[in-house]
Amino acid sequence: MYQERFAHIEVDLELDRTIPQAIRERFAEHQQEDVDWMTEGWRFPLKEARRVRFGQLHYLDHPIYGVLIKVEQVKK
I want to staple 58 with a disulfide (CB 3.0 to 4.6 A). Which of 22, 29, 37, 69 is the partner? Predict the structure, then answer.
């Protein structure tokens, strides 16, 4: 998070998921490839930047997951 004239957030997340062995084997068979050639996991990145308002709830959407962000102003 940073603030210039307005508050902004930048999100750079990545979700790693292991591919089940049965799915890897069936996919390799369907593609006519060796299963050892296949990757063992999937990566799902979420990169987003946006202006935010203090106290509001913001939702960042990805087809696999989502992120809720609420920024509160700190009193000195």
Answer: 69
